[in-house]
Amino acid sequence: METSPLHDIAQFLRRLQWAALGLGACWLLWLLAPILTPFVVAALLGWLGDPLVDRLERAGRSRNVAVTLVFTAMALLVLLVLVILVPLIERQITTLIASLPSYRDWFMNTALPWVEARSGLEITNWLDLEHITQLLRSNWERAGGVASTLLGYLSRSGFALIGMAANIALLPVITFFFLRDWDLMVARVASLIPRNHLDIVGRLARESSDVLGAFLRGQFLVMLILGVMYGLGLWAVGLDLGILIGLIAGLLTFVPYLGPASGIILGTIAALVQYGDWRYVAGVLTVFGIGQLIEGYWLTPKLVGDRIGLHPVAVIFAVLAGGQLFGFLGMLLALPVAAVANVLLRYAQERYTHSRLYAGTPSAILLEPGPHIVTAPSEREAE
């Protein structure tokens, strides 16, 4: 069935309107990024807690009671994490600061001579303390100008600090309201969808929710379990900074291979500086090897699955692009938006592979049969 040119023009104008609306939304998001962070975090927490609230409602409790129970449990969990982690990380940072001279001596007396002996480069002369001091003195005026500019910026940004404190205070309030009214907001958004697109939009929304659930719930648990596992393992090996290195490796696990790679590098350096013995380096490698086996064969298949489908390069690009465009808010939204975009791209690929553009149209040209080729009879036929 052929469409008229007016219908094609109208369809193009509708698509142009939707594109303009999307660009306008991105521009508005860029303008409001400084104040949207607590709302985005609260929305994510509300979305994560809504299934548990619904389960308590099905068990016979009212919505307000279920929301209060879930909100209290989330607040107690955050408080428990802060009570345990903040003093622990503070002690680890104190240990790191006290160990900095040892790391400097190892770097200058062991690592650099080893590199120079194998590369032929004279790096030690450029890192000599007297040379660095002379460079600092020669550029003292420029450094003083930069410092005064930085101090002036910090003094002018007092309102930003007040705004950050206000955002932290608003976060639990907004989270509570998101938990209470989540189903109502979803129903209102669903009521605005055109009826002829309701089925496909509902399908994409369910797939996006599954992907986000697999990432936010599953990946968060994987990061937490691996961080604790790496930290306790490196502490058992005997590293003074083992817990801090393990937590860093666990937090970086959301980018495949980056977490264990950073942990192995930092753990190896810490073992060489503290002990200077390759047996402790072997202990570090054993900890991360066991952690990778557990992650690959149990944690990730069990808690995350293969529904996300984001390539490691796509993860890195999404985080960097989100931070460049929208700052901290963009980094928060980067991976959820990338996961939803991946669902939409799979749907677009499905539509494309079932379209006439991909399959092609049968040719309408009928080829006339060519002239028959007369061949000479064989000897047996001639007889």
Describe this structure as you would to a colleague:
The structure is a single chain. With 383 residues, the protein is mainly alpha-helical. The chain is built from twelve helices and no strands. It has helices spanning 5-58, 63-119, 129-138, 140-156, 158-191, 198-237, 242-251, 258-274, 278-304, 312-353, 356-359, 379-382. Helix 1 (5-58) crosses helix 10 (312-353) and helix 6 runs antiparallel to helix 10 (312-353). The longest helix has 57 residues, at 63-119.
Keywords:
mainly alpha, 12 helices, 383 residues, 0% strand
How many helical stretches? 12
Number of strands: 0
- Give average pLDDT, whole number: 78
Rg (CA only):
31 Å
Beta strand %: under 5%
Q: Give the N-terminus to C-terminus distance in angstroms.
A: 61 Å
- Runs with pLDDT <50, length 5+? 143-147, 372-376, 378-383
Structural class: mainly alpha
Q: Helical content, roughly?
A: over 70%
SSE series: HHHHHHHHHHHH
Shape: globular
Which sheet architecture does the biggest sheet show? none
Helix and strand topology:
Blueprint: H1 5-58, H2 63-119, H3 129-138, H4 140-156, H5 158-191, H6 198-237, H7 242-251, H8 258-274, H9 278-304, H10 312-353, H11 356-359, H12 379-382
Helix pairs in contact: 1-2, 1-5, 1-10, 2-5, 6-7, 6-9, 6-10, 7-8, 8-9
Please outline what is shown here.
Helix content is 83%, strand content 0%. By secondary structure, the protein is mostly helical.
